Amino acid sequence: MNRKQTILGIAIILAATCVIYYPSLHGEFILDDDDYITENEFIKASDGLSSFWFSTEPVDYYPISNSSLWFQWRLWGDTPTGYHVVNLGLHIVSVLLLWRVLIRLSVPWAYFAALLFAVHPVNVETAAWISQHKGLLALVFMLLSILCFLRTIPPEPSDRLVFFRQGTGLWYALAIFFFVLASFSKGSAVILPALLVLLTWWKRKISYWDLAATVPFFVIGAIATKIHTWFQLQSPEIALLPESNLQRLLCAGTTVWFYLYKALWPLKLQFVYSRWEIDESQLMWWIPLIACVATTFMLWWYRNRWARVWWVAWCWFGIALVPVMSFADIGYMRFSLVADHYQHIAIISVVALVAGYWHGAYQLLPRIAMPAACVIVLALSFLSWKQASLYETAEALYSHTLAANPGCWLAHNNLGVALAEHGELEEAIEHHQQAIRIEPENPRGHNNLGVTLRQMDRVEEALVHYKIALEYRPDYANAHVNMGVALRKLGRTEEAVEHYKLAVKLLPNSAAAHFNLANALRELEQLQLAAEHYRLAISLDETNAYAHCSLGDILAETGQLQEAKQHLKRSIELKPDYAIALNSLSWLYATAENSSSDETANAIKLAEKAVALSEGKIPTILDTLATAYYAANMTTEALATQERAIASARESGAESIVLEFEEKYERWLKAANRIEETHP
């Protein structure tokens, strides 16, 4: 391809992917996106990077991809669009890199293969699901590593190590560097060394020196595998994989054909497929495995005749699937043994093989092959656009999943959460209950049902489900937090504190746990201890406006006025429409000794905004505005506003503050009368 054709090719890839994925760019957070981003305390913490690199506290050891998300949080916060745009950008970059790799490997119609990869519906799950950022990033680094490594392979077998071949040392070092980045972006990248051996064999006869060149890659891959496996085993939610090794082997055989079928016929794709029940006594589970063995043997036998390209494609496909063949425990396999995003690397061999044979068809029947290729690209693009549209809302995605897989408790559970967030509580309850019927011993389902019941003020019922969740999983920190919230609502604050303390012990880096504990301690008037936990919550999540406000209030109560003002100002910066913070800062300005005219003017401005936001229905905020008016010598406005505060307090039944407000009103009125008598 010349320069103009290359630019046109890039433009087509950009246009196609942007159109296909446009619906998902405005998509919501789904499934474990909260775990990876919005509820990930390491992402929010200012020292989160050190935790990703130098601690065992995170769920996975993916320091590269987690660091990327850490930086993105500083840009996008809890707005999902930015993360979706980055994922789309990585998908486009991987498509362009794949194009270069296939050209380097002399694959016919390399551009067509890259375009098929760009628009294939199976890849939508990876590109449109924010949590799969790790997989996209890993593939980019893998392709960069392959490109660099291919530059080190001489046309003929060499009798010298790569370091001693002129002009290859830097490329070799870069290949290793990018492999390290890939391996610590996502664990599935550890299969790269085997792929490098395969590609070397594909280009020419392989030598011992070629194998020696891959040894550092295998060593790095082994170390990364050991680390990733250790982290997986620490997860409290281990997948319930097939029990026997034979069942796992049968599952692996079926997995290969399942993914190949979906790659060639990408219809009826599901976010969560039905979970297989492997039965070694049934012939149907043996046939796929036997077919895999037979195919492997046949292609190997004819590898030096007609099957060389088929052997390479088959090996790439199989090697790429090894990490997800149920031999290893993967958390997602609690829900399904297969997933579209698992074949993100494997499908490369399928599109490359199809493109190569389409080139042969084009040479024989150019008038048919080219239009047919365009039709295939358009058809795949349409299917991908439809698939990407499902990721626009969590409700759409989980509803689509349940239509095809009604027994999926995960979809029922998450649809319930999504419905509850949109205020459809009754329907949310139904889905949570259905999730529990399908999977009665699922602590997450009971916890989420409890949350929705509490939103409906059915607090006693919520407590029952929190207790069940904790029976099944005593170390479930979120259930302890929610139990504490429910107990506080029932006035059982001391019991709530015990659950919050357990949550903090289980999740010492949880800003939410520290914040809730601080709220309860403040309610018990343990202000010093409450302030400590507010500070911890802020150190873990500096964007928590509520923690800043609460800490500011405590500091004001204990006379630390300057620091109190700093935290209240920060709270307002983070949440400009937070009436309570506006009110608290206004009160400090209005009641300060020797306050300046600027401070009293600011107090009035803040209090007026707080009154407007609360629609004048909160008596304490009206009282603050009245106090600010009085501090500015606007006595008439102060008296009128204080009358409103008294009336609002009576209407809301807050009799305890009515007397206080009335005494203040009488004091101001007498002072005003004395002034009138002095200056008739």
Give helix % range.
over 70%
Describe the sheet with the most strands. none
Q: What is the β-strand count?
A: 0
- Helix tally? 33
Which whole number gives the mean pLDDT?
Answer: 91
| Alpha-beta content class | mainly alpha
Fraction of residues in β-strands: under 5%
- The first-to-last residue Cα distance is 96 Å
Please explain how this structure is put together.
With 680 residues, the chain is mainly α. Among the domains are: 3-241 and 339-383, no CATH class; 577-680, Serine Threonine Protein Phosphatase 5, Tetratricopeptide repeat. Helices cover 72% and strands 0% of the residues. Helix 21 (443-455) packs antiparallel against helix 22 and helix 28 packs antiparallel against helix 29. The model has no long low-confidence stretch (mean pLDDT 91).
List keywords for this structure.
single chain; 680 residues; mainly alpha; Serine Threonine Protein Phosphatase 5, Tetratricopeptide repeat
